[in-house]
Amino acid sequence: MQVWQIVLIVILLVLIGSLIFLYFWGKKAQKRRDEQQGQIDAAAQTVSMLIIDKKKMRLKDTDLPSIIVDQVPWYMKRAKVPVVKAKVGPKIMTLIADIEIFDDIPTKKEVKATVSGIYITHVKGLRKDKKPAEEKKGFFSRFRKDK
């Protein structure tokens, strides 16, 4: 065998080994995520809240309790998370929103949200206040006489 054939076989073996490793690691991560989702769904409750502000910021810069920040792994403390500041009853709370619904949460409006601990999983009662855009008239249409 020539040298390039040996190199090609070694590269193929490494690629096949890494694909097998990623397959089993992905199955394990999916199982762990399903368990966590089950726990979140079990603790969920619907709450009416007034959304004051929302933004993406680093976890260490949020007003979350230090117990929560200390439980997060060191590599996630610098990652930006979607944070929502809301008035729930008489208290103003800082909550973490699900990344999929973060863009849909309106500010300065009252919504019903499904909350599990400090995590907003679903928002109900959204009103779509967007009016249909009026057609813009062109420059010359102002001068044209419609009969």
Give structural notes:
It is a single chain. The protein has helices at 3-42, 66-71; strands at 45-58, 80-88, 91-97, 110-116, 119-124. It is an alpha+beta fold. Strand 2 and strand 3 form a beta hairpin. The longest helix is centred in the first third of the chain and has 40 residues, at 3-42. It is flat. 7% of the residues are buried.
Q: What characteristic shape results from the CA principal axes?
A: flat
Largest sheet: 5 strands, mixed, barrel
- Widest sheet: strand order? 1-2-3-5-4
Q: How many strands?
A: 5
Integer average pLDDT? 88
What is the strand content? 25-35%
Give helix % range: 25-40%
Beginning-to-end CA distance, first to last residue:
87 Å
Could you spell the SSE succession in H and E letters?
HEHEEEE
Low-confidence stretches: none
Radius of gyration: 25 Å
Tally of alpha and pi helices: 2
Secondary-structure-based class equals alpha+beta
Describe what is shown at a glance.
The chain has helices at residues 3-42, 66-71; strands at 45-58, 80-88, 91-97, 110-116, 119-124. With 147 residues, it is an alpha+beta fold.
Looking at this protein, list some descriptive labels:
single chain, 147 residues, alpha+beta, 5 strands
Question: How are the SSEs placed, and which strands pair?
Answer:
Elements: H1 3-42, E1 45-58, H2 66-71, E2 80-88, E3 91-97, E4 110-116, E5 119-124
Parallel strand pairs: 3-5
Antiparallel strand pairs: 1-2, 1-4, 2-3, 4-5
